[in-house]
Amino acid sequence: MTISVLLADDETLIRDAVAALLGLQEDIEVVAVASSGDEALAAALRHQPDIALLDLQMPGLDGIEVAEKLATQLPTCRCMIVTSHGRPGYLRRALETGVRGFLPKTSSATVLADAVRTVHKGGRYVDPELAADAIAAGASPLTTRESDVLELAADGAPVEEIASRAHLSPGTVRNYLSAAVAKLGVTNRHEAVRVARERGWL
Fold first, then answer.
1. d(Cα 116, Cα 100) in Å, to the nearest integer?
2. How many structural domains are present in the chain?
3. Quick check: 67 pLDDT over 90?
4. Angle 94-59-55 (CA atoms, 0-180°, nearest 5)?
5. 83 shares its domain with 117
6. The CATH number of the domain where 21 resides is what?
């Protein structure tokens, strides 16, 4: 039996490479691709794939938000997150939403294909290293968006650049940074980044 897959990633090179690699598997067929969360949701409802492989961070809806909507609108589709942002907070949120698989983009094609098969059979697949990190880190007080913005601020980028990269307004970015600083009990965003990293939340 062929497993039908929707692949959503806003990075064209990665999306095309993953689609090509999965296409080499005899029992897996990529039936649709999308470059944003909104496209992914529409494509899933149109093609009704067995599995939705979703990038975590995309324009519009993020991968977890897409999974959340599909859980009610297309419950036969099992969702997996493939990401370069494998923070413990994301993993917890994804699992709470009903996501069945969570892998880093550094995974091999063989691991990804096997994870797709496991999830299709009704199982779960969580990258062991990410799972261990999540257990060790404890619960983060930061929301997912606060963590996103704080991570983008880590290299000293100005608010306008962070806003552009996160698809948010500058005012919203400032609010998220202020909230993160307050929750972590520090005086500025640089200290917030340091504390969050030390505790495994970034």
1. 10
2. 2
3. yes
4. 40
5. yes
6. 3.40.50.2300
Same-domain check for residues 161 and 92: no
Q: Identify the CA nearest to 8 among candidates 46, 50, 73, 59.
A: 59
Residues near 201 by beta carbon (within 8 Å), at least 6 away in sequence = 87, 88, 89, 137, 140, 142, 147
Nearest Cα neighbor of 165 from 180, 184, 151, 186 is 151
Find how far residue 87's CA is from the centre of its chain. 9
DSSP state of 146: H
126, two tokens: 């969580």
The pLDDT tens digits for 154-190 are 888 999 999 999 889 999 999 999 999 999 999 999 9
How many Å apart are CA 189 and CA 150, to the nearest integer?
7
pTM for the full model? 0.71
Does 75 share its domain with 151? no
Task: Give residue 177's domain range.
Answer: 144-198
Measure the N-to-C terminal CA separation of the chain; round to a whole number of Å: 40
Helix (H) or strand (E) holding 199: none
Rounded to the nearest 5 degrees, what angle is found at the Cα of 112, between the Cα atoms of 95 and 150?
Answer: 50
